[in-house]
Amino acid sequence: QAILDAEPDHPEAGLALRQVQLFRRAEEAGPDALALADAAPDDVAAQTRAADFLLGTGNVEAAFDRLLDVVRRTAGEDRDSARKHLVELFAVVGDDDPRVGTARRQLTAALF
Fold first, then answer.
1. Helices 11-29, 44-56: crossing angle, 10 deg rounding
2. Do residues 10 and 4 touch, judged by C-beta distance below 8 A?
3. Of the ranges 9-18, 29-38, 46-55, 94-103, which one carries the lowest mean pLDDT score?
């Protein structure tokens, strides 16, 4: 954070901070996050916690797929919340990862 305070556009510090924040959210969500999300498919907060847990444990595609499903099934504020969280996860993984490109295309198709 100190690096970003001094140099707000520092790419490596920004990525590192987003990764640390994700790992904290994934740890807070815990392994129960998946069961809770599966039991409440319309609960967007539960779905985002499950996606954080999945991404934090290395299941990138499953995390993306979970939020893509929410975007496809919802509308309005719920859809926008899921979309924003998915875009945040893209930033954590990084644009160089081919899974991000695939998921971005799927997101575009789901939105239009």
1. 110
2. yes
3. 9-18
What's the CA gap between 96 and 53, in Å, rounded? Answer: 22
Maximal CA-CA distance, the chain: 44
49 Cβ contact partners less than 8 Å away, ≥ 6 residues apart: 25, 28, 29, 33, 36, 37
CA dihedral 43, 44, 48, 54 (to 10 degrees): 50
Whether 4 and 13 have beta carbons less than 8 Å apart is answered as yes
- 28-84 pLDDT, tens per residue? 777 789 999 999 998 999 999 999 999 988 899 999 999 999 999 999 999 999 999
Its pTM stands at 0.82
